[in-house]
User: Fold Phosphoribosylamine--glycine ligase from candidate division WOR-3 bacterium 4484_100.
Amino acid sequence: MKVLIVGGGGREHALAWKLHRAKKVKQIYAAPGNPGIAQIGTCVNILASDIPGLARFAEEKKIDLTVVGPELPLAMGIVDEFQKRGLKIFGPDKKASRIEADKSFAREFMNKFGIPAPKFQVYETAHEARRYTKTINKFPVVVKASGLAGGKGTFIVNNRKEYEKVVDELLVQHRLGEAGKRIVVEEFLVGQEMSVFVLTDGLSIVYLPSAQDHKRLYDRNRGPNTGGMGAYAPYPTNKRITNIIEQVIIQPTILSLRDQGIDYQGVLYAGLIITSLGPMVLEFNCRFGDPETQVILPLIEGDFFTPLLAVAEKRLSEINLKVKNLWSICVVLASAGYPFDYHIGEEIQFKQKLDSKTLLFHAGTKMEDSHLVTASGRVLNVVTVYENLKIAKQRAYEEIKKIHFNGMYYRKDIGNTGMKKMKRKRRR
Ligand code: GLY
Assistant:
């Protein structure tokens, strides 16, 4: 079987690594891929947003399954185009991708079907948005651009002045263009965040291990939001919370999407917050998480190609996915200055060979004159998998000492919340 992976970050390298291990998979292609993926597959110079180019490539190479990493091609309708051409593809179609690509649609959908979520308002003009300060006027509050903004569309706003500034930037100056044409103003919730992933063909649901992302730049969840500075899996939770997630969030979401004429196939990523009132949906995403994928896939027993193909062929009910009783952790190595202006082109050096058990997923790297150099904000993902989180964390940070590039920055506390939760659980 030949697989095409769309995208070129750490998530896509993890997908390529896992799919490459499946006996049935003989060839991996990635568009555009990265130097890490190039070690196990063939990278082709087609952008993830070039849908006609990707479809032509899949036809030419007789690709058996295309797996889409990022949200943009999904929201642009890559699945619709591939299916029109009779090409098998894993991911939701354009209509279903609105669950991520149109946040006001997603919030109204959750509201209509009683999926637990923060209270929200949708505004289309600055005049309307100012009503918030005249009526509710509660801070902090979360302001989100309704459309896709490449991770730059969420603002935690602490007071009226900051609120007016964000409203002006989005609805008057149109800083985020079309994506910020409409905004969603949401209640700010407090609790631990948890990323839940399910495979679905619109009928059956298969749960993948859950994870916790670390979105803030600095230790102890301080500083600006990033694409994710690290993750661990599984997220330690209890039966009561798991039941609520399954029965009150995931199952009703898939069923209600069907009720709305949306046949969701692919992975549904529910970004949850566990509040004192129970789990609530911060956001739904129509794709795998990054860096969560890097910690989830190493925990899946055996072949991951068969379940993804089963989704695309609408026979997920045949799949029985097994998960290893292990813990994994991913620490993201980032360029100095990320998530703002950062410097690239720094040579990446390995002072010592990494342990053979360590997984190194490339994100923003490229080859320049036979040297591996930094090419983006998030550069590398160091992933370790062990029988407990403490050892996994210790090993990951030992491995990081072997890697160097100028300005290399990483959080030192990935996994700490998980370890604290486990300690509390043991004490009970
Ligand atoms: N982990 C955050 C995201 O993938 O959106």
In short: Residues 119-187 form a domain with the Dna Ligase; domain 1 fold (CATH 3.30.1490.20). The longest helix spans residues 239-259. The two ends are 49 Å apart (CA to CA).
